[in-house]
Amino acid sequence: STGKPVIVGRFAYSGRGSLSSDPVMAIRINTDGTFDSTFAQPLRSQSLVNTAYGIYGRFAILDADDKFLLTSDRLLRFNADGTLDSAWPARNTGYTKEIFWICRSATSGNIYLPDLNNDTPGNVVALTAEGAPLAGFNTGGFGSTIVPETAILLNDGRVLAAGIFDHFGSTRQPGTALFGTNGLLAGDSTAFHNPGVLLQNPYAYVFQ
User: pLDDT digits over 77-93, tens only?
Assistant: First the structure.
């Protein structure tokens, strides 16, 4: 609401942070383009990331009250001033790679993101707006080392995912997969089954 953009990534400046060992994960810029020194500039060591994998901030979306959600090797929530939000669950929602995408429902506030180390095994995890696991949702089926590389939440609540996978469970599913609101593979005529292409680098954003 302040109009000040928050930029996430890997930063170090003026003796604060180290690009290689303890980077700043987010900075904020004033509306006139100057650096906002009132923002906390959170360090990786001040977060909950696994330092072997959570190298820096990868993706962020704005949350209520000017808080923001940030991904590294897990999903974190920060207060508007850049400090870590201690009310966000400290559970290990994440996996040993950086998380490149988040989807959030504009109506329910539910959040969807890739996952390999969740309370319930799955490759896409759904959380409530407060970070608790969404009951009854599980898309486990890509295998123990694969997650979709990108995804979008459709208007009807289904999740369309793309990646380097070629199956989901015993179903041949090369490149794209459509999941129902319960996280199960969709089986209707619009389910994107077997599109005939295996995507090698699907990092472009999917949109509708």
Answer: 999 999 989 888 865 55
DSSP string over the chain = ---PPEEEEEE-BTTB-BTTTB-EEEEEB-TTS-B-TTS---BGGGS---TTT--S--EEEE-GGG-EEEESSBEEEE-TTS-B-TTS--S--BBSB-----EE-TTT--EEEE-SS-SS--SEEEE-TTSPBPTT-----S-SS---SEEEE-TTS-EEEESS--EETTEE--SEEEE-TTSSBP-STTS----S---S---SPP--
**What pLDDT, on a 0 to 100 scale, did the predictor assign at position 207?**
52
Distance CA 19, CA 21 (A): 6
**Higher pLDDT, residue 110 or 199:** 110
Give the type of residue at 159: V
More confident residue, 150 or 49: 150
Between β-strands 59-62 and 167-168, what pairing exists: parallel, antiparallel or unpaired? Answer: unpaired
What is the token pair recorded at 125?
Answer: 């995890």
**Pick from 88, 71, 91: nearest CA to 79:** 88
Question: CB–CB of 162/199 below 8 Å?
Answer: yes
Of 10-14, 19-23, 49-53, 102-106, where does mean pLDDT reach its minimum?
49-53
Structure tokens at 66: 């000017």
Is 183 within 8 Å of 139 (Cβ atoms)?
A: yes
Higher pLDDT residue, 187 or 152? 152
How far, in Å, CA of 179 to CA of 184, rounded?
Answer: 5
